[in-house]
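=== How it folds ===
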Amino acid sequence: MRVVKINEVKKEAVSSPLFTGSEVTRQDLLPDSREFTVAVVNFGKGVRNKFHTHDSEQILIVTSGKGFIVTELEKKGISAGDVVIIPAGEKHWHGAAEDSEFSHIFVYRSGSQATQLEE
């Protein structure tokens, strides 16, 4: 067994065309897991990722701030304590509200792939 304290995991800057801004960091929580990818993503105010899909389910656990989860059919405000499950293949984006930083833990099957659908 191993216990990880989120506040002790180093934040690493993320540079990816998937995000609409540069104020994004990631904290890999379980880098040695063989079954799951689990990390915290921290978004600056108004920063989000672009429309994308995953080939497995994705779970988001909001830890701080205010943000949105958006599909082609709906947009929902989310905040600390909310848990979101996104079915495999569903086109979506998530990120911070314009006036708030935003952080969530994401969980998905190790080795699953994301496909960016928005330029």
Q: What stands out?
A: The chain has one domain: 12-110. Residues 12-110 form a domain with the Jelly Rolls fold (CATH 2.60.120.10). The radius of gyration is 14 Å. DSSP finds no helices and ten strands in the chain.
